[in-house]
UniProtKB/TrEMBL annotation:
This is DNA starvation/stationary phase protection protein. Coiled coil: none annotated. Residues 22-161 form the Ferritin/DPS domain. One of its GO terms (molecular function) is ferric iron binding. Belongs to the Dps family.
């Protein structure tokens, strides 16, 4: 995913800027994919609690779209060229398409638990690397991670029993999580 940088932010080496742009691009793909996945869920969720879940998802869509815009602008600030086309997302992502179509609120929320786990895990891994590369980008990732973890909590609250155990505990795939509810 090499990008030619003709300039970067003052005080940031070209090599460090290159790596930061790569990390930003990965998160840009993740956020573009996530906001489309969330909208897909919004359109395809059915059953009891439909309206609550339907309305819970839209603010998440809007926030994640905003994250994508911030990530793309940071790439440009560092001298890179953000890629936001569908082909670049599909060609460069490290995950499969969301696998649940029209389904119950619980099935979609269970699948979203797996999706959010993957997105947040990668953000947190990137935070450690950014500690030595670029604290400005790290700050952006921290703020986005905080919001993603909040959204994840909203999703998981629907999957908990009164003892705090998740119905999706141990699930590693969207379909597996959906089947667990």
């Amino acid at each position: 995913m090499a990008t030619d940088l003709h300039y970067t932010a003052p005080g940031l080496s070209d090599a460090d800027a290159q790596r930061v742009v790569e990390l930003l691009q990965g998160r840009l793909h993740a956020c573009n994919d996530l906001h489309l996945t969330l909208k897909h869920v919004h359109w395809n969720v059915v059953g009891p609690h439909f309206i609550a879940v339907h309305e819970m998802i839209d603010p998440q869509v809007e926030a994640v779209r905003g994250f994508a815009d911030d990530l793309a602008e940071r790439i440009a600030t560092l001298g890179g060229s953000p890629k936001g086309t569908p082909g670049s997302i599909v060609g460069e992502r490290e995950w499969d398409d969301y696998s649940i179509g029209r389904a119950s609120t619980q099935e979609h929320l269970a699948a979203l638990d797996v999706v959010y786990t993957g997105v947040i895990t990668t953000y947190r891994a990137n935070l450690k690397e950014l500690d030595d590369l670029d604290l400005v980008t790290q700050d952006m990732f921290i703020a986005q991670t905080e919001q993603l973890e909040l959204f994840h909590w909203f999703v998981r609250a629907h999957l908990e029993d009164k003892g705090g155990r998740l119905a999706t505990d141990g699930a590693t795939s969207e379909k597996g999580a959906a089947a667990s509810v």
